[in-house]
TrEMBL record:
<dbReference type="GO" id="GO:0010181">
    <property type="term" value="F:FMN binding"/>
</dbReference>
<dbReference type="Pfam" id="PF00724">
    <property type="entry name" value="Oxidored_FMN"/>
</dbReference>
<keyword id="KW-0560">Oxidoreductase</keyword>
<comment type="similarity">
    <text>Belongs to the NADH:flavin oxidoreductase/NADH oxidase family.</text>
</comment>
<feature type="domain" description="NADH:flavin oxidoreductase/NADH oxidase N-terminal">
    <location>
        <begin position="11"/>
        <end position="338"/>
    </location>
</feature>
<dbReference type="InterPro" id="IPR045247">
    <property type="entry name" value="Oye-like"/>
</dbReference>
<dbReference type="InterPro" id="IPR013785">
    <property type="entry name" value="Aldolase_TIM"/>
</dbReference>
<protein>
    <submittedName>
        <fullName>Alkene reductase</fullName>
    </submittedName>
</protein>
<dbReference type="GO" id="GO:0005829">
    <property type="term" value="C:cytosol"/>
</dbReference>
<dbReference type="GO" id="GO:0016628">
    <property type="term" value="F:oxidoreductase activity, acting on the CH-CH group of donors, NAD or NADP as acceptor"/>
</dbReference>
<dbReference type="InterPro" id="IPR001155">
    <property type="entry name" value="OxRdtase_FMN_N"/>
</dbReference>
Length: 368
């Protein structure tokens, strides 16, 4: 199906995505919640949080570091040691018991990080030694200017590729249904894609195909371990978050899509405020499920996202903040129940308030 071709599908229809059957086409978008401890281990309440939202066709978890050196924020979880893996097993079991499906988003923040968050001797790294003109969080939560990153060596790149592959193995061993590679929002994989942050003149920079190479290598390594049908990729073409200068970079995203197509990943997850020729071309070229997200500033009520499915612009739609305050969002949409408003003050503060205490509209009813 290509963009602009009307379909009979709705957001409530089931769909097969790679190796996974989904009950509907509404995806809970990845959202950082800062509930993990200093060791990157999520609390037991995280299992409750995700299981409450299992009416989504698919849950994509908060960004999760594949190595200790990949961490960029206090309170984000990891999936690179046994204790972290066990916490994720509790989450996977809870979501599956509630009838849901869940992918773990793997995120290396690259230059968007601070030395206090990573092990002694590790370095803040990026494709090129170009600091982000933003503030980043220290381990104590204080915001400070971003540091000058080190340009990754070929050996360092190979090590990060292995980290992603090993984290994907842990994710599957923990019972998670798959992983999403975070190549958006100004983090490491996105930094390699953009000529504003990638000034390399080796095999990883200088042309569209070379800028796409690192992301393709990560995807190939992950697919070799867990199967491409259990792997998605998230991108944000033209995105400016975290001091990205990605406009006019269409050739790189087309090269990336072409480089990934042979693998046949489960899906491509694209952030899109409005339709553009690039988005339409990506949709037309992409061989498997295509997911759209309207972004942090975009509208994402049912009336906004439903046409993305019925028009053929996407096979799946992802929604973020509405899932925070409406754990039963899909059921509310299906039955026309008003949505609750989120409390932004609780997004990142830790604790259970604003995390697992939002009410269900369907309690005591037969809203399925």
């Amino acid at each position: 199906m290509t963009d602009g071709v009307v379909t009979t599908n709705t957001v409530f229809d089931p769909v097969r995505v790679g190796a996974v059957e989904l009950a509907n086409r509404v995806v809970m978008a990845p959202m950082t919640r800062n509930r993990a401890n200093a060791a990157g281990v999520l609390p037991d309440s995280a299992a409750t949080y995700y299981a409450q939202r299992a009416s989504a066709g698919l849950i994509v978890t908060e960004g999760t570091q594949p190595s200790a050196a990949a961490k960029g924020y206090p309170g984000t979880p990891g999936i690179h040691d046994d204790v972290q893996e066990q916490a994720w097993r509790k989450i996977a079991d809870a979501v599956h018991a509630a009838g849901g499906r869940i992918f773990c988003q793997l995120m290396h923040t690259g230059r968007i990080g601070h030395p206090s968050l990573i092990p002694e001797g590790a370095r803040i790294v990026a494709p090129s030694a170009i600091p982000a003109q933003v503030e980043v969080a220290r381990a104590d939560g204080v915001m400070v200017p971003a540091v000058l990153p080190e340009s990754l060596t070929a050996q360092g790149i190979a090590g990060i590729v292995r980290d992603f592959a090993e984290a994907s193995v842990r994710a599957r061993r923990a019972g998670l249904d798959g992983v999403e590679l975070h190549a958006a929002n100004g983090y490491l994989l996105h930094q390699f894609l953009s000529p504003g942050t990638n000034r390399r003149r080796d095999e990883y920079g200088g042309s569209a195909q070379r800028r796409a190479r690192f992301v393709v290598e990560v995807a190939e390594a992950v697919a070799a371990e867990i199967g491409a049908g259990r792997m998605g990729i998230r991108i944000s073409p033209g995105g400016q978050f975290n001091d990205m200068q990605d406009k006019g970079n269409e050739d790189t995203y087309l090269a990336l899509a072409d480089g990934l197509a042979a693998l046949r990943p489960a899906y491509l997850h694209t952030l899109r405020r409005r339709s553009s020729p690039l988005h339409r071309e990506l949709r037309n070229r992409w061989p498997t499920a295509y997911m759209l997200n309207t972004g942090y500033l975009g509208a994402s009520e049912l009336a906004d996202v439903s046409p993305l499915i019925t028009s053929g612009a996407a096979d799946l739609v992802s929604v973020g903040r509405l899932f925070i305050s409406n754990p039963d969002l899909v059921r509310r949409w299906r039955h026309g129940v008003p949505r609750a408003q989120w409390d932004e003050d609780t997004f990142y503060r830790g604790g259970d308030r604003g995390y697992i205490d939002y009410p269900f509209a369907c309690e005591g009813t037969d809203m399925r």
